[in-house]
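Batch manifest, entry 17 of 40.
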Amino acid sequence: MNVSFTNSREDISTAKRVETDWSALSTGQRIRSIELDGYVVIPDLLSAEQIELIRAELMRLPATGTDYSEHQRGFSGVQWTDSPTAIDCLASHD
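Output type: structure tokens
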């Protein structure tokens, strides 16, 4: 997946970092945070090795642009690709 048209490494390295202590928030505060921010960052959920493997797996996928953003691209059906680390993260675990 070619992401060269999105953010440069310099932009990413200077981007504002989320510093919310998710574990300190109540359920209501967590819900409000997701509703307002539109995303959640859960520290230490994935290891650095997992992130690198997922990045390598997803970079191979032929992403297509969306009709609503020149910077957003996507790929449907990751679960049907040879992306075992990404699929494992998507699968539910008991």
